[in-house]
Amino acid sequence: MDILLQQVEYRYQANTPFERLALRDVSFDIPEGAYFAIIGHTGSGKSTILQHLNALLKPTKGKIVIGDTEIIAGQKQKNLKRVRQKVGIVFQFPEHQLFEETIEKDICFGPMNFGVTEEEAKKRAKIAIKQVGLSEEFLQRSPFDLSGGQMRRVAIAGVLAMEPDVIVLDEPTAGLDPRGRKEIMNLFYELHKEKKLSTILVTHSMEDAARFADQIIIMHKGEVYKKGTPEEIFASPEGLLELGLDVPEVIRFQKNFEETCQVKLDRICLTTEQLAEAVTECLKRGVPK
Amino acid sequence: MNKLILGRYFPGDSWIHRLDPRSKLLSCIYFIFVLFIANNWKTYMLLWIFTLFVMYLSRVSFRTYIRGVKPLIWLILFTVFLQVLFTSGGTIYVNWGPITISQFGLTNGVYIFCRFVMIIFISTVVTLTTKPIDLTDGINSLLRPLRSLKVPVDEFSLMLSISLRFIPNLLDETQKVMDAQRARGTQFGEGSLFKQMKTLIPVFLPLFVSSLNRAEELANVMEIRGYQSGEKRSTFRQLQWQKRDTVCLLLMFVLTIGLTFLRSEGGLH
């Protein structure tokens, strides 16, 4: 399912003294099966974009096309339920949305809202809980007995059980330990590969964006500052540094290495593995004196 | 929720903004009492002039005030209509069973409308121009005499300032939880009353849970930082009574004199 944003503008509390422009002239498209990362400072409009992707917010100007549904500013829109089923959002700290007495019921909540039968929903709950790395025994427990990390997994399972075509992640690893972070990020990457899920990741972590995304969008003050593949973005990281954004450690190492040794590696490395390979190759060729 | 103007702070630097919260609170309460002295069109005119003058002084656009009245307009109109329909006296225009539209009813209706709107305007002036934290300080300071009656004034004002402090957070969180549940297919405000009530469970339960967690965390943090209830504490923010505060109270005094002067003896006319 393709998602297309055309000159989207969004104002919070439009026409009140508290009005605030959050997005200005944002256009891009997310083709089916792509992995997008949206990066930017707090307050750059990342989360506002994200809420447009399943029509929780409607643009105050411009147009959004989600699959075959068009959302145009100022027009009444019915049947947004269908859009919301197709686009699953994992909000920041999703564990705060748990409420049922058992985990199974909580995971079934989403699917059943979209008209799935109880039997089918329970089947999906079983699959989803395994997908997020918990065993089936958890299903009968109360979500409030779990640790923070486990609650997060349950909440994610609740979104996965809706079987969305597009999954939107708002800092899914905020506040997790390094291992939990890695596991969750890998989980989403595998789902993206296996099920051809379009994935949109909103994150502060340049590392994650560089490692997983095919396309990166940099937001700055409500506008798209830069858009491109990780290689394109990190080929000239100076602009990013000016915005006060971080550059992945790998990129910084490469820059330092190239400067100190007066060599140029043949490509921009986005992961430590790639960097190790490139450096080895370079060393084999020998450093020019 | 975002449309609510009453009870919000609107940053600014007007004469009214710089008043001491105590004088603002006292004047606001006093104004509401003084309203009931008015009983003819001259007194109401005077009150209107005063209200509009105060609103002008606050340097907040008139539209903002109108917006503050909007959510309450049905309540106001309802009361006004009851007055109009069930008051008798003076020339009677329509008579239909117990319902009469009379001269007294109409004037009474207009007066009540004015009273409501002015009360809302004036209290909006106070809340729009005073930081919530200053309001609690003001209330605390005004309640201080009650201490000798064994009323736990400090605890009360602490609770008040904590609640005020967390209103925006709770609203934010409500919005977040609602968004998250909408993303999971909940539709708010649709279907029968029972159905609508059921859709609130997925919102309220997480909110209660997080409020409990937050309360526990806050209590721990306060204890770590040395808070003990009932102990004598010093205050960081000191309220300062200035010349303009005296002027403000004097203005209220002048208003009262004006009102008693213009007030007619015979009651409603």
Tell me what you see in this structure.
The complex is a heterodimer of chains A (289) and B (269). The model of chain A has no long low-confidence stretch (mean pLDDT 89). Chain A is globular. In chain A, helix 3 (103-113) crosses helix 4 and helix 4 (118-131) packs across helix 5 (148-160). By secondary structure, chain A is of the alpha/beta class. Chain A is built from eleven helices and ten strands. In chain A, 40% of the residues lie in helices and 22% in strands. Chain B has 269 residues and is mainly alpha-helical. Chain B has helices at residues 21-34, 41-57, 62-69, 73-86, 103-129, 132-143, 153-183, 193-198, 201-224, 243-262, and strands at 92-96, 99-102. A two-stranded antiparallel ribbon of chain B has the order 1-2. In chain B, helix 3 (62-69) packs across helix 5 (103-129), helix 6 (132-143) runs antiparallel to helix 7 (153-183) and helix 7 (153-183) packs across helix 9. The radius of gyration of chain B is 23 Å and the shape is globular. The interface between A and B is medium-sized, with 27 and 25 residues.
